[in-house]
Amino acid sequence: MENIHLLIVDPQNDFCDPRGNLYIPGADDDMSRLADFIHRWKDQISQIYVTLDSHRRIDIAHPLWWCDQDGKAPSPFTLISPEDIKIGCWKTTVPSFQERTTAYINALHAKGRYPHTIWPEHCLLGSWGHNIFPELLKAIQAWEERCTFVNYVIKGMNPWTEHFSAVRAEVPDPEDSSTATNNELIQSLSKADSILVAGEAATHCVMSTVEDLSDYAGKIVWLCDATSPVPNPPNTTLFSDRLNNSLDKLKMLGMQVDKAVNFNQDRIFNQKKQPCQSNLDQTRITLI
Fold it and tell me: Buried (b) or exposed (e) across 20-45, using 16+ Cβ within 10 A?
C-alpha cells in the first residue's frame, strides 16, 4: 500500500472563514472538500501535517510596524520596496527597528519571490483567527482516532521575517533556529511515497512550501480544489504571474495535480492526467 502523507498548509479561520481578517475567497469550500477527502481516505493516509501561521500584532508584515512621513500606518496590501524605504515613503514606527528592517527588505527583494506585502493582522496567537477551520478540524480529529499523531508545524513566530513556507522563513534569522530549514519536516516527508498538498493560500504559503520541497516534486500531488489564491493587488497580475511561473517549473520537475473530490491514487501514480477546474483557474493556469 502506498505511504501517503497529507500536508495541510495554514487551514485557519482568518484565511478560511468569510469573517476572517485575511479571508481567501473560496477557502471555506476548499476546507469542506478537504474534510470530505480525509473522511474518505482516512485509512489510507499514514501521516497528516498541519502548519499554523502564528503571529503577534507587532510583526514586520502588519500595519503597526510601519508609518509614513505623517505617522500614518500603511493600508493592508500595500507593497513596500527597498526604493520606498530609501526615499522615505515608509519607515518603522519604532526608530530602533529601522536598520534591521531595511536590511530585511533588501534581502527579501534580492530573493525575488515577492515584494514585501502588508497584510491585515491575522492568525494572532490565542485568537479565534488562529484556530483551525472547524469542519476540517473534525475530520482531522476523526483521523486521529486511530491513535496516530498529527504533526503540527508552527511558523511565523519571529516578527522580523515573513514565514510563508513550512520549510523555512523567507529570510532566516541566524539567531532563531525556528526560521531555519526545518530538516525534521523534510526528512519525515521524504519517507512518503506520495505527498498530497492542500491549504491556503495557493499564491503564497502553499506555493512557497512546495517550492522549498522541489527536490521531492515527483512525489507531490497538488490538490487543486483544496487551495485558493490571494487576489492580485489592484491593477496588477503580480501574485497570479508568480504562481503560474512556479507551477510551470514544478510540473516540469514531476509534480502532479488532482482533485480532492475525486482523487484517484491509481490514476496519479500511473501518471494519467485529467483536466482540473478549481479556484486556481482565476489565475490563468492550465493545471494539468
Answer: bbbbbebbbebbbbbbbbbeebbeeb
